[in-house]
Amino acid sequence: MKIDPTIDVAEPVRPHRKHRSAARSADAIDRSRELRRTETESEDEAWRLLRRLRFKAFKFRRQHPLGRYIVDFCCPQQRLSVELDGSVHAQPNQVRRDARRDTDLRNMGYTVARFSNGMVLSAPDLFVDEVLKLAWLLSEASG
């Protein structure tokens, strides 16, 4: 059998996609990547803990763009956003911003769970239990 040399059978070269949908801009994706590279100690620990939940059928993403926001952790299947709050989140201006952000995320159909950085670092088992309990509740409600 002869092969026609004029036919190119090589896979086409596909450049790295900058975004998957119109809902996530290239800027949001670039910002998410930067946040993943410069994560805090509590974000690193939370990611290590949440990644284990994929074996319980809950897959999380970190620094995930949702609309105009980038959430710390997201379980898209359950529409769950997990946010880690440091001491800055106790300031009045930040409290108002967080409330507006939570409302916007809820309007997009997401449940928002906020945890302190200290809880992740000092009581990791409790953090995982709370997230897992919420994920199961959302799973039962949608199923």
How would you describe this structure to a colleague?
This protein has a single domain, classed as Endonuclease, Chain A, CATH 3.40.960. Strands 1-2-3-4 form a four-stranded mixed β-sheet, sandwiched between helices. Helix content is 45%, strand content 17%. The chain is globular. A hairpin with a 2-residue loop joins strand 1 (61-66) and strand 2 (69-75). It contains five helices and four strands; from the N terminus they run ααβββαβαα. The relative contact order is 0.14. The model is unreliable at 7-14 (pLDDT under 50). By secondary structure, it is an alpha+beta fold.
- Beta-strand share of residues: 15-25%
Helix proportion: 40-55%
Helix-strand pattern: HHEEEHEHH
Q: What is the annotated CATH architecture?
A: 3-Layer(aba) Sandwich
- Report the biggest beta sheet as strand number plus sense, adding barrel if it closes: 4 strands, mixed
Number of strands: 4
Task: Name the average pLDDT.
Answer: 78
CATH top level class name: Alpha Beta
Could you give a short description of this structure?
45% of the residues lie in helices and 17% in strands.
Which labels suit this protein?
143 residues, alpha+beta, Endonuclease, Chain A
What does the secondary structure layout of this molecule look like, with pairings?
Blueprint: H1 26-37, H2 41-51, E1 61-66, E2 69-75, E3 80-85, H3 92-107, E4 111-116, H4 117-122, H5 124-142
Parallel strand pairs: 3-4
Antiparallel strand pairs: 1-2, 2-3
